[in-house]
């Protein structure tokens, strides 16, 4: 599938004007509740930015436009205490060479996350448990849980999961947008290959249970999600997924599966990826122009500030020439409120796909997060329910998963 840069290019170039407007819509009461809550997001793709030359998490990257949505200044502004920082691996060839590349990529990204932590000991800290998250946020630092999106780095040797666990991995997603050796994706045009999890995928579930790693069914097919719920001894999550009954995209899940997830104690974290929220009609000329632009920058890890500025300028030209429909904050809330009604507030969280294509008009970066708290108050949710949505529900699952681990897993 396409490189991450083209994924981002296909997303939105979000107007910064919307940010200023939104800040005025948050009441003092909502701000106070938001500050009090432990605010976690389950899908921060930000580690992909760590290797960019000159890029530092401590700097404000508003000038990057929607290309960069998470950094310390904007986390502070939006009251984001932290969350799960993702080791994302694009699905490559499923042969020895492809598996080796995926293995190296995963380990390199894990190392880069640790380098970021080592460089910022006063502001960021690795979290290995729910208690860690509460303690770290209580000290005013940012919480760094580590997750994996697409288990392909484990394809050649699934026992590597123990090494990842020792390095801090606490959440594991099975697939990305294509099928892999562990299971089926929700969006592979070839359709199901395993009818859910492969035998290796089922073994991986057992291994994750033993180690106390939360299983994540986002991107995986509905059959995989059903099997994860059935096979896992402890509840699972969907780290960034929206509602199929609001917009019928295969990447979203329907009400029946939502209810099953909730009944099993799991939590769905609602995604803010525009293409999964509303129907954006295909526009081949636009897509061609975006792909041509992406092809000019094949290595996203090497993008300089000048490259980003050039990309944003080219993006503006493409947006003017081939305008596309854009999802809005109201579209996001339609999914969130529907899911809250179907699953119940104890089974919902937030995973907006920041730095991975997420963000909508009016919710352009993590600085805008208090708007969600305001909208939840407006919809009648209680302070306790809103605190659960922002982090309590996630930590409940993490506690259950770690309590269910085998002693060796807990101590490693
Ligand atoms: Zn994703």
UniProtKB/TrEMBL annotation:
<dbReference type="Pfam" id="PF01244">
    <property type="entry name" value="Peptidase_M19"/>
</dbReference>
<feature type="signal peptide">
    <location>
        <begin position="1"/>
        <end position="23"/>
    </location>
</feature>
<protein>
    <submittedName>
        <fullName>Peptidase M19</fullName>
    </submittedName>
</protein>
<dbReference type="GO" id="GO:0006508">
    <property type="term" value="P:proteolysis"/>
</dbReference>
<keyword id="KW-0732">Signal</keyword>
<dbReference type="GO" id="GO:0070573">
    <property type="term" value="F:metallodipeptidase activity"/>
</dbReference>
<dbReference type="InterPro" id="IPR032466">
    <property type="entry name" value="Metal_Hydrolase"/>
</dbReference>
<dbReference type="InterPro" id="IPR008257">
    <property type="entry name" value="Pept_M19"/>
</dbReference>
């Amino acid at each position: 599938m396409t490189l991450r840069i083209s994924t981002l290019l296909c997303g939105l170039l979000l107007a910064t004007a919307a940010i200023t407007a939104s800040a005025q819509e948050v009441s003092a009461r909502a701000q106070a509740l938001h500050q009090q809550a432990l605010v976690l997001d389950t899908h921060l793709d930000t580690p992909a930015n760590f290797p960019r030359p000159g890029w530092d998490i401590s700097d404000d990257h508003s000038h990057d436009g929607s290309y960069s949505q998470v950094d310390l200044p904007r986390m502070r502004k939006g009251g984001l205490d932290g969350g799960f920082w993702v080791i994302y691996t694009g699905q490559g060839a499923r042969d020895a060479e492809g598996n080796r590349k995926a293995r190296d990529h995963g380990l390199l990204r894990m190392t880069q996350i640790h380098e970021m932590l080592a460089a910022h000991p006063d502001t960021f800290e690795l979290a290995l448990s729910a208690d860690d998250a509460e303690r770290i946020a209580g000290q005013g630092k940012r919480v760094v849980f580590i997750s994996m999106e697409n288990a392909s780095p484990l394809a050649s040797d699934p026992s590597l999961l123990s090494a990842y666990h020792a390095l801090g991995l606490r959440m594991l997603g099975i697939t990305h947008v294509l099928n892999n050796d562990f299971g089926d994706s929700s969006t592979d045009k070839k359709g199901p290959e395993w009818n859910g999890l492969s035998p290796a995928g089922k073994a991986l579930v057992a291994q994750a249970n033993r180690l106390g790693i939360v299983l994540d069914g986002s991107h995986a097919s509905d059959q995989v999600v059903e099997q994860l719920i059935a096979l896992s001894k402890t509840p699972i999550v969907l780290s960034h997924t929206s509602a199929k009954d609001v917009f019928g995209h295969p990447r979203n899940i329907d009400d029946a599966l939502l209810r099953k997830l909730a009944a099993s104690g799991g939590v769905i974290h609602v995604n803010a990826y525009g293409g999964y929220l509303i129907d954006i009609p295909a526009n081949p000329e636009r897509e061609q122009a975006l792909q041509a632009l992406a092809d000019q920058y094949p290595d996203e890890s090497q993008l300089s500030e000048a490259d980003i500025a050039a990309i944003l300028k080219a993006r503006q030209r493409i947006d003017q020439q081939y305008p596309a429909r854009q999802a809005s904050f109201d579209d996001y809330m339609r999914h969130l409120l529907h899911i809250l009604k179907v699953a119940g507030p104890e089974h919902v969280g937030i995973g907006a796909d920041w730095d991975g294509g997420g963000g909508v008009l009016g919710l352009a970066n993590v600085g805008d997060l208090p708007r969600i708290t305001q909208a939840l108050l407006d919809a009648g949710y209680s302070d306790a329910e809103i605190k659960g949505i922002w982090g309590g529900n996630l930590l409940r699952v993490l506690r259950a998963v770690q309590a269910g681990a085998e002693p060796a897993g807990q101590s490693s």
